[in-house]
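User: Before I run my own analysis I want an independent prediction to cross-check against. Here's the chain; please return only the structure tokens and, at the end, one sentence I can use as a sanity check.
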Amino acid sequence: MTPTAARRLLSIGAEPLPEAGVHFRVWAPKPRRVELVLEGPSPAVRPLRAEADGYWSASVLEAAPGSLYRFRLDGEGPFPDPASRFQPDGPLGPSQVIDPGAFRWSDDGWRGIRLRGQVLYELHVGTFSPEGTWAGAARRLPEVREIGATCVELLPVADFPGRFGWGYDGVDLFAPSRLYGSPDDFRAFVDAAHALGVGVVLDVVYNHFGPDGCFVDRFSAGYRGGGRATEWGDAVNYDGKGSGPVRAFAAENAAYWVSEFHLDGLRLDATHAIVDDSPEHVVALIARSARAAAAGRDVLVLAENEPQRASMLRPPSQGGLGLDALWNDDFHHSAAAALTGRREAYVLDYRGEPQELISLAKRGFLYQGQRYGWQDRRRGEPALDVPAAAFVASLENHDQLANLPMGRPRLASRPGDWRAMTALFLLAPATPMLFQGQEWGSSTPFRYFADHRGELGDKVRAGRRAQLAQFATAAESLDRVFPDPGDPATFEACRLDWSERARSGPWLALHRDLLRLRREDPVFAAQRADLLDGAVLGPRALVLRFFGSGGDDRLLLLNLGADLELEPVPEPLLAPPAGRAWRALWCSEDPAYGGFGWRPPEDAAGRWRLSGGCAAVLSAGAP
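Assistant: Structure tokens:
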């Protein structure tokens, strides 16, 4: 490595030099000649010098922050920089030199976030605000913080072709999408979040490159291949021939988001599609790199893993990958079955019965090695020793909403049951994640949208139809309700209507009060599944008992069925601690939340009556 390269922040990309000019470095073992093309009124071509292991570099005095450039490979192209920090005209346009030190941060006192106590809030920048920009999203952050959310989780922002998309088909992994603003606009969003005490976690995709506009193969055949494939295309090469720089590419990308954008963590998409037989799995390398880049701040690394490999949560010294948390789709699927009564496709193996909900609260994943009928194989790994906070639970998220026929939330059906389930969701020990607008019962759908054209667009539409057709009820009506992912109207229909928030006081109050209870009540705030027990009280009713210090216990009663009279009451979890009595603390049927009113579940004579479609919280107090 040259002395100039040794001062670089990243091993690849364009970085301004301290005095003048820009240092360019790219990994391109495939071509024999690499040239830099500086674009503008007077284009200039500069040769790059070959280094070891397929790297090329040059210091160019006439380049500066804001300069547009591409690379010519053996006379072909020019092509954008695979490590471009910004693509102002989209993935196939010229790359732009960005000075990562130009933004003036105001978060010097911010120390990052730790997992315990977090309430995540998932959002898509393009649909979260009317503007669909970083600035528009930043203006809404106070409302997110006001309900009690502590950390936003952003859908991917790596640049992708087209006018709109979810972000999971990124092709410029270092370039924040030009659709939402400039890189400094992204930094301003993070800075504003930190000023409010809100963390920011970014969803990143390391399991595949997007199918449209991806040009990395022009630089090296080593980015992909090895005969492995994912459902989205060729797998990324993390353990085959020439994989060293590819592993470094992913690790540096993770470090880049944390260091240059002050992010508080990453959520790794579809880690089950990241194949690696190296001594150190690339996911462990990514997590290690992200934490090192935080320079003393606390950083979280979360992941999606469909097979529920709980071992990923254990430290590398114990054979794990060192992650902090995993999404728990079991919670969503069981809650969906309980709320809708439907058991289709991947919800087939869930009944939503009280024992399932108790097990979710106490043990995290439901499937920890048992047979899973939908896939006709065992699913999961033992996770009984995993802390409750390491499971991220949701009632709505981008995937699950989009897998409904019209992308609509289930809130409209049986609001009493939804309020009651929300209580379980927000008071259970797991880490809860809300989806944008969920806190006010948004009627805005969230559908799959992707601006792919031509043959690729046709394939995406066909694939999306096939995915929705897993659900028998949806398959019958797809011709009438299927939203075309490539239609701009599909995207526009997903933009949140913030005027609904002002008319949704009861739903906001429900979430605000529950999250305050979760935050301020010491028993709920402890997030101790080992100090939790539960029992089935009826066909659709249960009790969870949270054991506090010195008998300062809490009961959470949940009844998704009809009114239930408990006589007799042979369940010891309903007995108060010695010398204490149960006192009503909270109820989902309070008129403040749009309910019908309520009375304490236990009367003076010790008889219990659980109202239908209701959740109640009791505390142990003086008799």
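Sanity check: The mean pLDDT is 93.
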